[in-house]
What does this fold into?
Amino acid sequence: MIKNKFVILVNFLLLLIIVLNPVGSISAGKDSSPYIISTKKIYTGKPYASFTSLINYKGRFYCAFREAKKHYDPSGEDVGIIRILHSKNGKRWQPFLSYSVDGIDLRDPKLTVTPEGKVMLLVEEVKYENKVAVLRKSCVSFFSSNKSHTELIPISFKPNMDWNWLKDLSWIDGIAYGYIYAPYFAFVKSFNGINYKLVDKPTIDNSPTEASVAKLGDKFFSVVRRKQNAYVGISNDGDQWQWKDGGMRIGCPKLFTYKDNVYTVGRAYNGKMNCTALFKVDQTSGKLVMLLELSSDMDSAYPGAVVKDGMLYISYYQGDLMKSSIYFSRIKL
It folds into this structure.
């Protein structure tokens, strides 16, 4: 009896110490900033896999990426195909769908969920002849969890753009918003994901290309890749934008929001080997603050991002321009 009372007293004192001194608890050091829980290779390229996108749809993760022999081949002999994997828990991944077109390089797949509850795949078709691109157009396909899907449907623009590249998009309040960087850099929107209208042609120097958009509260935010520091756009209506210097150079941004904050994942140019990183966007100044680098001793970029139950899930490629694989990381926000 005395021994049991002693054990109870010791346990009570230990609990009291933890409550009164939370700094000494195991998890306290990690609660203030995001940290990586796990990283897993989910696909080995044959030999090259890159340009990822990630969604969670009806309780499953879906990861899309391009697979080819290398980053790109202007001769037209090596053309990329799009693969989509799915997983219930992010641990075991299985093939779901693939897309290919004879003689056409398929690039930059992007997955989104439409307001009608279907998955939309956005992809770029490129055809090369004599080491010159003679065709460049964006297409979409719609599919559901039972693998039923449409063929690739060319999207249209108003005004007409036969040569086009819609790099990324986000469904916001039932409308698809995104950026094109061919034939010029512009902000566009669509009500059905197929027919797009030009909204704005931002005057941004130093070759704006990859860009992403998100909305928090009543404000829109964008991050645009340039040859110098990224630009951060802030808008009250999605039409008129105020642009600010983000303070650092990043590539292939993918924006998302969590609670009261705006974040982006993308390629960090940090003086070492380029890596995928997590950034926070200052909603007033537009400055980007790097929060976390994903472990990498190789080139790493083109991420997809999903926020679910306080966790951030990121897909990205890691390797070089001739050989790379797809990775999946879990991060506590």
